[in-house]
Amino acid sequence: MKITLDRNSKTSLKQQLYDEFENRITSGILTSNTPLPSIRTVAKSSEISPMTVVKVYEQLENKGLIYKIQGKGSFVADNKFILEEKTELINGQWQDKIQDYVVRAGFTQRTLRYKNSTSYNLGTASLHERFLPTQYIMDHFLMQYDLKKMIKHPPVEGYPAMIEKVCQYVVDKGIESSSENVVITSGSQSGINLIAQTFIAHGDVVVIESPSFPGAIDVFKSRGAQILEVPMTPKGIDVNALLVICEKHPVKLLYTMPNFHNPTGYSARFDVLQEVIALAREHNFLVLEDDSWGDLYYDRLERPLKSIDDEGRVLYLVGFSKTLGPSLKLSAIITDPILRQKLVNAKSSIDSSAPLLSQIIVSSYLGAVAHKQHLIWVRHELKALMTRVKAHIDAIAPPYLKVAYPHGGLVLWMTLPPIFDCKLLYYKLMTDESITVLLGEHCYSSINGNNQFRVCFSYEEEAHVIESLTKIIHMIENLYPLMQRCSQSPNT
Description:
Strand order of the largest sheet: 4-11-10-9-8-5-6-7
Shape: globular
Largest sheet: 8 strands, mixed
Strand content: 5-15%
Helix content: 40-55%
CATH topology of the largest domain: Aspartate Aminotransferase, domain 2
Number of strands: 16
CATH superfamily of the largest domain: Type I PLP-dependent aspartate aminotransferase-like (Major domain)
Oligomer: single chain
Radius of gyration: 23 Å
Distance between the termini: 32 Å
Number of helices: 16
CATH class of the largest domain: Alpha Beta
């Protein structure tokens, strides 16, 4: 078990160690009755005092997360909120002694554990099947597929027809590109990982928005990056805070979602985009622009950061699975030819190429008249759905629940007063109402977001979304007095 502590963080090493164990236990990475490494082992591998480890283990035991057996050590407790199944303790399992390098207990482990056991999933940011053009894509593909094309190995950078379609597709976004600028990857998460593996080494400074996409945070953590957070505002990233960081630290990469940001839904103003480009030029750092939801605008197309990048500093990542379907996980990275070649070199040792069948299917549909017409319909439907959801929330929500309503995308970002701990809300929604949401704490690299959560309003049937939101708000109202009493108690 490898635990990496950030000695540059404002959070104490003791707190970081506690958080790492708590995350691994509550996410299910460490299952019930799993033996924990010895105090000496943790102290040596993490380069901290054994007494610090002792205090962390005591704190975990006091919280009911672990238990001790005299002469045998400490073990993960059987927590009903974490696991429903029990595992038998087997002393000396060889699997437990295998070193792992899971730096952060990713939010996906916890989400996946409950996805199949809950009735209403408001935690997954995707479109309901009624919004997807699956049938048309398959019918269109079956009418014209060529078996000979599908038995060849595609180039590492991507299927040529797919690359050509991508270049045509981004013209409407104000981005000029050629085949020398494009790399096809197996989804946006794969694209983020490829960029991180190519350009980020242990200790490199990566700046992210606060909050940010949990999957990206996990990737940068796994690379051992020093992650610094900049607040995300309704106008876009806080450029003044970004400037302060740039003046104090050698920033290597900025990860940003300027359009329909995940999880807040905010979009950056054009003047903010200009300032970001100016800072990247002045302080010589790369920008990874994640535009996974750029096609899902309600009223107008938001201009990407890449469209004003005249030096090639922006690595523009655009995904297609959000609007075409999760089984067609493809994305494209558009960047400077020299940077693109570095990505291709790295990709050749990771997965060789994105699935050829997916590339053939998507390239036959991307940018076609039917695709453009479908996107127009989806945008209209999503805007209407969001308007109805907003009206319902506004009618029943208490004044202390703040909701960020977007102009595009699929999610609502909800913020409660600082005294409200959304973990309790999360577990009670699962156990009492069979509803899942995404906890806000997963969207931060630091210890933050305890009073926030994200819901997706487009993955379930509309009636189920309305019903779930009603139950969520009623539960918030029931829990809020308890949170107030706890905050006023001197023993909490």
